Amino acid sequence: MDTKSKGSGMDYWKKIVILLCAGWVTIWVYRSALSPAYPQINASLGGNITDTALGFISTCYFFGYVAMQIPAGFLVDKIGKKKVLIPGFIVFGLAALLISQATNIQMIYIGSVLAGLGCGSFYGSAYSLTSQNIPKEKRSFSTAIVNSGSAVGSGLGLILSSFLVVQLQFPWQTMMYITVALIVVMLIAFIAIIRNNKEDAEFLAQSEAAEAAKITEEAPVVEKEHVSIKKLFSPKMLFAYILYFATCYGYYMTVTWLPNFLGTERGFEGAAIGFSASLVAFASIPGALFFSRLADKYMHKKVQFIVILELLAAAMLLFTVQATNSTFLLISLIMYGFLGKLAVEPIIISWLGENAPKVGIGTTLGVFNFFGMMSSVIAPTLTGSISDATGSKVMGFYISVILLVVGTILFLLANLNKKKSA
């Protein structure tokens, strides 16, 4: 089976890993670029915009992103990954341009929804490409590399926005122009690298012929029967969904509001805001790689890993808001990144694969991801509303801590009951 691209010595799957990692970098540069510039956006639009209204920018993006997940997955299966990715990123680029020309907050909202819809094309396409093309023995580590693009992009977006917009006082629209430039590069790469439908079909035919025996062994797992609602929302599964909602809530609240919190409530200035906030993203990369390998080594202790990591992450969020000096605050942020969402997420997904109903695993994963991404719609606006009402975002952090602790306890109890009944 020839896995190399035409005229190139590099394996196709390696190009896919690099391409998808760069895709996440581009998406997350955009996602993290606006929050450090909220004061500048407010000033450019008249100076009377509330924190609730600013937080709603992120909510609009994630509303579009969540809404696109199921349709994009259907379209990937129906018309192919390339035909979904390219139009999606064109919409993404047009949305960033629209935001850069905004004369009022409503235009930013519309652009954010469109950006979410455009980026929503990426998830299903990306992980279809990884599952189809990356060799099984290299898939976990390769997927970790792909996922690390989100952390790199988040860190770069925060640092660039804080340095260029906050410190050097470039117009906040500068970050949107940078995003558009990155999107154009990605579109060229998608066109040049990703196989078209005919080439994909030929590749799949070769793969099926080469791995016929393995496919025969795995075939009974793929059934036409649908998972029942009772199994889909059994206590064990429901509490896993709640735990993931709580995990994502803390992460997306932090991604959206941490730069503003550091600047307005903890005295950080200029590039220091972006650098400090980016520590969460960069610390998550070694955390994800380290704990995923550890959990694979001690496969029967996944629940213990999940519970310990979630409680430690909650503690780090608590320490962040209670820190009395910048050194303690920065250490807490680094540890939250190392122990938080990106570290525990692969272990939760692995646990889910082992414990979900054998029939309808795709549906289970869809519900699981829906619960997690719904938190990204709620957290930014709710935290902004709390800030408007109290004059501080500290309560938003406390809510994240409470959700994490409650979700972890429920998850632990559900798994303890399982062991007792076994």
From TrEMBL:
This entry's Gene Ontology molecular function terms read: transmembrane transporter activity
Q: How does it sit in the membrane?
A: Multi-pass membrane protein
The record, for Pfam families, names:
MFS_1
Q: What subcellular locations does the record give?
A: Cell membrane
Q: Tell me where in this chain the Major facilitator superfamily (MFS) profile domain is found.
A: 16-419
Q: Which domain of life is it from?
A: Bacteria
Keyword NAD annotated = no
Transmembrane residue ranges: 12-33, 53-72, 84-102, 108-129, 141-168, 174-194, 238-258, 270-291, 303-322, 328-352, 359-383, 395-416
- What name does UniProt use for this protein? Major facilitator family transporter
What is the native source organism of this protein?
Answer: Enterococcus caccae ATCC BAA-1240
